[in-house]
Amino acid sequence: MKIKRQKDFYSGLMFAIAGASFAIGAGNYNIGSAARMGPGYFPLLLGGILSLLGLVVAALSLRSSEEPNTIGSIAWKPLLLVIGANLVFGILLGGMPTIDLPAMGLIVAIYALVVVAAMAGTKFSLKSALVLATVLAIGSYLTFIVGLSLQFQVWPTFISG
């Protein structure tokens, strides 16, 4: 059996594995029933649906296709920058005591996240990245601090005291 559409096959396989992982992880919680759902009910249901859809996509990729659909080379720069942006966000938000880096807070972490992730694109504009970061920082502040009253650091320690 030959894979006709590699992109569909591997993306379907990825979704099936991710869905199965969530469904298996949901087993650690009380599932309950449809009438009285437990905390594991919804992740189990969504994980099962995602796995099923992933398997369908992977199976359909084995059918014939008029055009070749192969996977090209891995785009390392965007991949590493997007993952790195998330790591930088986490480190700046919570700090890193092992290297004496204090928590920089939500606002600084959002600006760093957006600027680093924007460098992954083909056209990088610092101005547009800063505008987007400003909108996201204001929206995050209003949502999480004002709206939900979550208690975490917004500003760096040397500013907020």
UniProtKB/TrEMBL annotation:
Boundaries of every DUF1468 domain copy: 12-151
Chain ranges passing through the membrane: 12-29, 41-62, 74-95, 101-122, 129-152
Taxonomic superkingdom: Bacteria
Entry-linked InterPro entries: DUF1468
Matches recorded under Pfam families: TctB
Keywords for this protein: Membrane, Transmembrane, Transmembrane helix
Name of this chain's protein: Tripartite tricarboxylate transporter TctB family protein
Source species of the chain: Variovorax dokdonensis
